[in-house]
Amino acid sequence: MKDMKIYIKKILFCVFLATLIITPTMFVKAQSNVESPKTIESFKVDNTKEECSFTYNLEEATEWMFNITGIKKNEQTIPMSKCIINIEDGTITIKTTLSENDKIAISAEGYRDVTFIVQSEHLFNIAWKHDENTHWKECMVKDCAKRTEEVKHTGGQATCQKKAECEVCGQEYGELGAHNYGNEWKHDGTSHWRECQTEGCTDKTDVAVHSGGQATCQKKAECEVCGQEYGELGAHNYGSEWKHDETSHWRECQTKGCTDKTDVAKHSGGQATYQKKAICSVCKVSYGKVKKEDKAAKVATQIKKLDVKVSNLTMKKISEVQAARKAYNALSKKEKDTIKKEVSTLTKAEILIKQNNCGTNVYYRFSNNTLTVFGKGAMKNCFTGSFTSKNIKSKIKNRIYQKYVSKVVNVVVEQGVTKIGNGAFACMPKLKTAQIQGTLGTAAFWGCANLEKVTYTNGKGTMGFACFGECKKLKNMVIAEGVSSMDRSCFAGCIKLKTIELPTTLKVVGETTFHSCSSLRTVTVKGRVTKCKIFAFYKVKNCKIILKTKAAKKSKKVFAKELKQEGNKKVKIK
To answer: In this predicted structure, what is the pLDDT of residue 14?
Structure first.
């Protein structure tokens, strides 16, 4: 009877197993992901029969064995026809050979897979065991304490809220990490701090009272640590500068955005005159009205202040004389009669200005042996037509400043004068230096035998015929930028002239320009000269024409042609 019951059970189990293989979806999981049996009572390997057997404790494994759905060896499915599952003695027999490190995996419906690796007599579970410091895999055979792959936990990153998680077994281990306070400051009205950035952590550090910064009347102090405004507003900064209107003065707060005022008061002190208002003794601004004065007295004062002499004449003084005349002419006859004495002073000044006029709005002054020409416009020509060395003195003997000609040592032509007239400074026996500008007229400095130094700026147009002719002591010369051409004989007879520099603007070198300049050694050319007229270098020897720039080098043929025409082989082009 007992054998019959066993036989019936086997038939039922086979029917159950066949149904499980053919229609596994018919079974409903009683429970999901239940832990599989942890311990194997024993196992045997008989590779001569090509089989292995695993025996489990029936109290733990009966239901699990009923639900087995598949067995794999090294990821290869073993057909259930090669498996014997005996739930009476808790044995699973698989028709297969086993080698070292073979992996057996058993799946059961509703249970976690159980997987182990065969190593000699041990069956090591692939699931990790662990304690606080290490992890390992244990043998599943009952009463076997053998471990494998036992090492310390590694990897992971601890935070201040959670220990590091081992990258191998997933177990937390070690100590909590340090707080991550970050760089951002938190604050309230009086203090600041930094907070831990780790989620869930409320720890703070660097808690301190706000400090530093400078409060103004418009803004509280800004903490030098966290940048938060704190404390009270500062005092006003009124500064020392006075502000004012026509009647009052005050000092304003210098803080940007503040309009507060202090020391507001009306102007006071000072004494008004006929010409000026009173000056406030506090803020030093003019206020009120000028002292009442009659027009005639005012003009009289204006005339008395005129100080016009040959030595100090300037455009400003000329303007003062003109303004005084205009003011006088505006008076009534009765008012004019009251200041008759002063009119003589005005008249003398006007006569002097007229006598010192040497062109349209151009004048001269003479002081300390220096003749200065100033104003705006061109000087008058001192002669017209041609001249010779014999008649030029007679042509220029009536110059406006003729009485000073024999005393002039220096000539200065100020900016604003556009042209130096014909013969303007010719035949001045003591002239040594000249500071000039503008266009040079015919014979402008001809025959100045002692002229040694010329400073020429702001040139324009053509340098006139023989403008520096017969200046026998002139040694060096730089022609001003702006000069476009040199007329005949500009430097003829300058027997000590050694060097001359031609500007970038010069295009034409005139006929006999350097006639008889026997000491001339270098002519530096900075621009492109398009014409060099005949006998420009007549009687010039041992001289070099230096073509200094790219543009100047294009002048080579022009100079070479002229030298060839006059048959001058002593002048070289470099």
So the answer is: 46
Give yes or no for a contact between 537 and 566, defined as CB atoms under 8 angstroms apart.
yes
What whole-number distance in Å separates Cα of residue 510 and Cα of residue 487? Answer: 5
Q: Which residues of the chain have pLDDT under 50?
A: 1-31
Token pair belonging to 186:
């938190």
Mean pLDDT, the chain, rounded, equals 89
Residue 424 CB-density burial (10 A; 0-12 exposed, 13-18 middle, 19+ buried):
buried
The tally of CA atoms less than 13 A away on the side-chain side of residue 462 is 15
Question: How many residues are there in the chain?
Answer: 574
Output phi, psi for 278, to 5 deg: -65, 150
Question: Could you report the per-residue pLDDT of 195-254, keeping only the tens digit for each?
Answer: 888 888 888 898 998 998 888 888 888 898 888 889 888 889 888 889 899 889 999 888
Strands 129-130 and 91-94 turn out to be unpaired
Q: Sign of torsion, CA 284 286 289 295?
A: positive
Distance CA 517, CA 539 (A): 7
The CA-based diameter of the chain, rounded to the nearest angstrom, is 174
- Give the pLDDT score at 144: 86
Detail the DSSP E strand segments found in 74-140.
76-78, 83-86, 91-94, 103-108, 114-119, 122-125, 129-130, 134-138
Contact yes or no for 98/52 (Cβ under 8 A): yes
| Cα–Cα distance for residue pair 362/339, rounded to 1 Å | 31
Q: Which of these, 350, 376, 364, lies nearest to 408 by C-alpha position?
A: 364
**Do 98 and 121 touch, CB atoms closer than 8 A?**
no
Q: Write the burial class of residue 106 (CB in 10 Å: 0-12 exposed, 13-18 middle, 19+ buried).
A: buried
pTM of the model: 0.52
Per the rule left: phi > 0, alpha: psi between -120 and 50, beta: everything else, 303 is alpha
**What pLDDT digit, counting tens, does each position of 268-319 carry?**
988 887 678 889 999 889 898 887 667 888 899 999 999 999 999 999 999 9
DSSP 517-540: -TT--EEEE-S---EE-TTTTTT-
What kind and span of H or E run contains 371?
A: strand 370-375
| Closest to 317 in 3D by CA, of 360, 359, 363, 371 | 363
CA–centroid distance for 163 within its chain: 51
Residue 90 half-sphere exposure toward CB, CA atoms < 13 A = 16
pLDDT value at position 200? Answer: 83
Phi/psi of residue 339, nearest 5 degrees: -125, 35
Dist CA 271 CA 278 (whole Å): 5
